[in-house]
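Hi there,

I know you've been waiting on this one. I reran it after we fixed the sequence typo, so this is the corrected version. Both the input and the resulting structure follow.
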Amino acid sequence: MMKEAALLALPEGMELDQIHITETGLVVSVISTHPQSCCPLCSQPSSHIHSHYHRTLKDAACVGRQLQLSLTVRKFFCRNPDCERKVFTERLPDLAKPWARMTTRLREHITSIGLATCGKGGVRLADRLGIETSRNTTLRRIMDVPDDARDRFGTILVDLESHRPIDLLPDRQAETAATWMRDNPEIAVVSRDRASAYASAASEAAPHAVQVADRFHVCKNLAEATQLLLDRCQAEIAAAGKGDEPTQNESGQPTISIEEWRPKEPAHVEKVRLTRRAERKARYEQVMQGRSRGLTAKEIAGQLNMSERTVRTWLAAGTFPEARKRRKKPSSFDPFAPYVLKRWQEGEQNGLVLWREIQKQGYTGSERTVYRHIETLKQASVRASLNLNRLHTFTASTAVWLFGRDKKSLDEVEQEDLATFCQASPTLKRTYDLVQDFMQMVRKREGYRLDAWLERIAASDLTELQSFAAGVEKDKAAVKAGLTWSINNAQVEGQVTKLKLLKRTMYGKAGFPLLRQRVLHAV
């Protein structure tokens, strides 16, 4: 048994129990024999066993056959009284990660196969080696490799006047870029992305040069901050469609939804309603007086000739329960309400004109009905219905483009979606105004307005945009130059694309010196 255990290379503290040969491969039963295990929260060791459980892991192939480990591991009591976790599962760091379904050894094999081949090619090679995997699993293993092991970043320097690369640097370190700038003191303008390494290199080695932050990268940073804000406002958007009670607009007028838009209440109806409310309020005060005298709900109900259930409900409420507003009755005006509201907001407030317009569209009601609905608009603000089901189809990463694009470039559906976002959340309305103001500076090169925009952000409560503004403050001179000058990194991005093409055609055949020569002397 010891020879078999050594052959399978099990970690210390793992004991091989049995080996079963099946039609698909080998099943090896393994038992953990560690005398104790450490709690993953407080790291205190424990030897008090709570229970045992079984765990199944795929392992690397053995003699061309698939291998499966059937582990018998334990749960331990955590004896630390200050620890939140009372029972924890045994960790096996040398064998597999928590919740993993394959051993670390098999993960490394699949990663190596994927790096040497590709997704589909790796699956075919793994099958020949007795390893069962899929294209997506192979690609995930590749993407799990740390960046410093998978990618190597460099720096490309482009002459903005000749539109040609003038040098290639092997890394993105500030020292390397600063050394190159010292050797080229004739530099007058440095257009760069938002990387701090390039900013510090230019400040140190070329203090006389004007630094220009690329507008694309600045807008990208703003989009990332707006996306985080959209994520935070999801709860506010969801709550917008649930509240039935009217809110108030900036002028102090009540705000009602278009579904609840109804004609103004006649004076005689209002008088009856207020009389009933006064009677109900007097009855409520009698109930509260009975409670203050120590009477039970049953006794109060008997004295006032009320339902005991009503008395209990009023006592539990703690405040005077207002009567619910009656449900609005369907009206022939309802189908035309959105059109009338839109025309009213556009400035058309003549009831006769509005009646004639909707009459041409099929409205059969009276002119008086239109006038009565318009009377409501003079005393309250009516908001269009929020199509929240439509908003739920957006993710933060897709909705952010509605906020950054010019409104004139949006089609009719996109404009309606944008309006719904702004109506559903006052926070997003303020965010949209600020983002559009910044994008206006970008499009019209109005860098002189940057300071005023930053002051508006500082006065707001939008923490995500304040974080973006803090980054701009640290690089304000370069950002202001980017919002003023026509210089940008567009041609640099094109040269980067060409460099990647050259690099991929040389994959595995040459190093940095040859790549640099091909980039600088490309035909």
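Quick highlight: The chain has six domains: 2-102, 107-148, 157-214+488-520, 219-241+388-469, 247-262+328-383, 267-317.

Best,
R. S.
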